[in-house]
Design a protein that fits this description.
It comes from Gracilinema caldarium (strain ATCC 51460 / DSM 7334 / H1) (Treponema caldarium). Keywords: Membrane, Transmembrane, Transmembrane helix. This is DUF5668 domain-containing protein. This protein has 184 residues and is mainly alpha-helical. It has one domain. It is flat and about 65 Å long. The N and C termini lie far apart (50 Å). 22% of the residues are buried.
């Protein structure tokens, strides 16, 4: 490696370490304001750092769709964990874990917008499916309904088939990018 490459590498490493320390310091500062054990904030910080790292990869590596999805997902999970640890979300993580499915769905949306040359329905339909699944699981996890998840599945399984069929039809009926290009 020549001197110029070494300086470039040192600059990137300095940026990453500085950004990581900034996020970790911010999380610890917020935790200290709410009398939360600082060790409890480590998982949230790790998720936030991984999310930021994937975001950097997404922008540096030719706008990779997978990295943008992972960036949005990890940042959402990190913020969610932080809010749970700080008791801003009044439920323990064991009760609100289905929100992770919602985050997977919402992370697909910026990923879809990130790559404009691909069909938007290819991402929106699965995103909506993940969001609906997360909401249904969250309703049962938080005991917002008077009946059990098992009873719901046993009585509503035809509706699940109906919605799965609608989602698949939407994917099929939405014009593909190649079809749109050929029609002009």
């Amino acid at each position: 490696m020549n001197t110029k490459e070494m300086q470039k590498l040192a600059g990137r490493l300095s940026f990453f370490i500085g950004f990581s320390l900034m996020i970790f310091g911010l999380v610890l500062f917020i935790a200290s304001l709410s009398d939360v054990a600082k060790v409890a904030t480590i998982p949230a910080t790790i998720f936030l750092l991984i999310g930021v790292l994937f975001a950097l990869f997404a922008f540096k590596l030719d706008h990779r769709l997978q990295y943008m999805f992972l960036a949005a997902f990890f940042i959402q999970v990190g913020l969610f964990l932080l809010l749970t640890i700080l008791h801003t979300i009044p439920y323990p993580f064991a009760k609100v874990w289905p929100a992770i499915s919602i985050f997977a769905g919402t992370a697909l949306i910026p990923a879809a917008r990130f790559r404009t040359n691909q069909s938007l329905a290819r991402f929106i339909v699965p995103a909506v499916a993940f969001i609906i699944l997360g909401i249904v699981l969250l309703v049962f996890s938080l005991d917002l309904v008077a009946f059990s998840f098992k009873k719901f599945i046993l009585t509503a399984w035809p509706l699940i088939l109906l919605f799965a069929g609608i989602l698949l039809l939407l994917l099929f009926l939405y014009p593909k990018q190649d079809d749109q290009d050929n029609s002009h």
